[in-house]
Amino acid sequence: MENRIAVVHEGWESEGGRVRLKATSGSGQVLGYDIVKERSQIKAQIGYMSQKISLYPDLTVEENIRFYARLYGVGDGKTRVATLIEQFSLHEMAHKQVAALGGGIRQRVAFASAIVHKPPLLFLDEPTSGVDPLTRRLFWTQLYELTEQGWPSS
Description:
Elements: E1 5-15, E2 18-26, E3 29-30, E4 33-34, H1 39-44, E5 46-49, H2 61-71, H3 77-87, H4 103-115, E6 121-124, H5 133-148
Parallel strand pairs: 5-6
Antiparallel strand pairs: 1-2, 3-4
InterPro entries: ABC_transporter-like_ATP-bd, P-loop_NTPase
GO molecular function, one term: ATP hydrolysis activity
Domain ABC transporter: 22-129
């Protein structure tokens, strides 16, 4: 069972919509990191965008993205934030509070925040749920364009 984790049904925990699987034996890696010994390194390599957009409503668009840049330790945060604001066409609302924005714009801010640190592994939990068809198409187009540009290294 090299590089595998054995899981038994009794090891499952469900908490707040999350399912945790407790390993009974074995080992595993995510992006080359040991899942037991190097959890913090793994977390730093993951981007996550939930179905329920998790932004700070009292902060502006720019402040939200900058917050996540600091959280992930992005070295040149100002430049990265400015790049994302331009890339996601958020410059006109960069200084507006998120609470005052529509769902499609909040979705773009959430996506920019999820990828601000250029994670090699990105989890998207129904990222286009609750948005109109045009916004949905724009989201997927942007994601495909990022991958075609060589993201996350671009």
